[in-house]
Specification:
The protein is mostly helical. It contains three helices and two strands. Strands 1-2 form a two-stranded parallel ribbon. One of its GO terms (cellular component) is cytoplasm. GO terms for molecular function: DNA binding; N-methyltransferase activity. Pfam families: N6_N4_Mtase (PF01555). Keywords: Methyltransferase, Transferase.
């Protein structure tokens, strides 16, 4: 994936597609391995709530920064 945030980073477009297959706007999306936050970003863009867990503090910082940037764009 672009940006090389994480070794297994998935495209936002793919995660968005998967989220739309299994949820509706307003639903909660769970990502127990948050990584760089791609699933959370896709969930936000699709008007879903999300819960994510990540054990690595560095990836938490990356995910937080990416989510903040997306939230500013969505406002």
């Amino acid at each position: 994936a672009r940006g090389n945030y994480h070794p297994t980073c998935k495209p936002i477009k793919l995660m968005s597609y998967l989220i739309t297959l299994g949820s509706r706007p307003g639903d909660i999306v769970l990502d127990p391995f948050l990584g760089s936050g791609t699933t959370a970003i896709a969930a936000k863009m699709l008007k879903r709530h999300f819960v994510g867990y990540e054990i690595d503090p560095e990836y938490c910082k990356i995910a937080e920064a990416r989510l903040s940037a997306v939230q500013e764009q969505l406002i």
